[in-house]
Amino acid sequence: MGDTVEKSSEEPLVSLDNDCSRKMGDLVEVSNGEKVKFDDTGLSMVLQNGLENLRLENSLTDVILCVDSIEFSCHRVVLAAASNYFRAMFCNDLKEKYEEKIIIKGVDAETMQILLDYTYTSKVLITKQNVQKVLEAASLFQFLRMVDACASFLTEALQPENCVGILRLADAHSLDSLKMHVQNYIIQNFTQVLNYEEFLELPADVLYNTLKSDDLYVTEEAQVFETVMNWIRYKESERFPLLPYVLEHVRLPLLDPWYFVETVEADQLIRQSPDVFPLLQEARMYHLSGNEVMWNKC
Fold it and tell me: Which PANTHER family does the entry link to (predicted)?
């Protein structure tokens, strides 16, 4: 490809086959000493800074986004380049394509300011206080790289007290990778997560997957049973029909026989659900079999 030379901003490029100043990095490629390929990788930053200055000066703006009572002057081309949402709005034959002012709903003014600052500067400050609103707005307006940044932030911020909320947020915005990460976190920190009432809001499918995991970290199976019953009772009318399916993932045979008789079989919800009887019978047979073995050994 030839030699690589760099050009000083103070000294003109007189000869392409000598050793020139080295201030511009790999911006100039020389071929045969007769032609130059100039690849100015810094121009994108110059353009970005220029567009941000134009916005701040309110120069050449051609659309106003109205959020609550705040107006934001912007450039359609910048919004369309950064967001598929705005690209569809301004590049298709929609009424917004021709309107000077556009009312934006589904986002508050503070969050819209964050989105626009990101659009023009590529910078955004994500915090525990704003991450949910920023994620929701970025998802709505299809700022996909910002969505990824929020998901990464939430992954690092996982705690027993907030993991269920983050899971619900990931589910709402179809962030499959984040959802899977949170599910694994709950499985590995199950006993700690149980200490927070937020656990009772866990979606049914996630509870199923959690309970059936071989990696579920619990100290005793009675804790799993009590967790299931608390989860059912939290929204009893809605969740009672799910009892057989959830209880199927509780290892009832591993419960202490006395606990099984006095707590599990005596539970009113258990007694009201005929579909759980096969599970109870299986546990009874296991306990009886175990007692027989112990008796024969004696």
Answer: KELCH PROTEIN (PTHR24412), KELCH-LIKE PROTEIN 6 (PTHR24412:SF428)
The C-alpha atoms of residue 122 and residue 116 are separated, in whole angstroms, by: 9
3-44 residue pLDDT tens: 433 443 443 433 334 444 445 555 666 555 677 888 888 888
CA-only gyration radius of the chain, Å: 31
| Residue ranges matching CATH 1.25.40.420 in the chain | 218-298
pLDDT tens, position by position, 75-128 = 999 999 999 999 999 998 888 888 899 999 999 999 999 999 999 999 999 999
Q: Which fold has domain 218-298?
A: 1.25.40
Helix (H) or strand (E) holding 111: helix 109-121
* Maximum C-alpha span of the chain: 103
Element (H, E) at 66: strand 63-67
Q: Are 154 and 164 in contact (CB under 8 A)?
A: no
Please give the angle made by the CA atoms of 198, 203 and 208, to the nearest 5 degrees. Answer: 115
The residue assigned the tokens 């969740």 is: 239
CB 225 within 8 A of CB 250: yes
CA distances from 175 to 62, 219, 289 (A): 34, 31, 47
